[in-house]
Amino acid sequence: MSTKSRTRSKTRLSRALGIPLTPKAAKYLEKRPYAPGEHGRTKRKADSDYAVRLREKQRLRAQYGIREAQLKIVFAEARRAPGLTGENLVELLEMRLDALVVRAGFARTTSQARQQIVHRHILIDGQLVDRPSYRVKPGQLIHVKPKSESMDMFQVAAAGGHADVLPKVPEYIEVELDKLQARLLRRPKRAEVPITAEVQLVVEYYAAR
Prior knowledge:
This protein is an alpha+beta fold. It has two domains: 3-93 and 197-207, Ribosomal protein S4/S9, N-terminal domain (Ribosomal Protein S4 Delta 41, Chain A, domain 1), CATH 1.10.1050; 96-186, Structural Genomics Hypothetical 15.5 Kd Protein In mrcA-pckA Intergenic Region, Chain A (Roll), CATH 3.10.290.10. The chain has helices spanning 3-17, 23-31, 49-64, 68-80, 85-94, 97-103, 110-118, 152-158, 199-207, and strands at 122-124, 127-128, 141-144, 173-176, 181-184.
């Protein structure tokens, strides 16, 4: 798929879900906040409970850019853990390496973060990690490989070039952007995680299946 095609696809999905999945999609949503298609401007009939839960699940999955199978695996883990399943789910997803690379400001989008990791530019405690789904543990240091620091995309990041499109750095991460390093201080709390999702509806979606 070409870059233009991916951009159009992300924009259409953003409009359908009502959340900006990329900086470009955010601009499109400001201009055209209604859903795509010829009936996008018209008032729709009330969605069924199933449709509402499904959309919330799709919202959560889209914001982390993961496949359905991946989300189901993390959901099963969240359900087994003590505490509220929905909150556990978001907290576990937020500890993915690709999510934290974005939160730290090294990448502009989850897609870019995933490319950086897969192309072997990101280290954890000095060790190369090329799995976007790697779960970072509290205390671990995420940093850009020294040989990669001079690349344009990382120079832009180090200068704070993504600050205009990313949320404020959450308190569970300590970031030294000029050094292109960040440390996960503790497990995130759902209330601190900058995503849009009614996680209880996601729990209800899976519970009903």
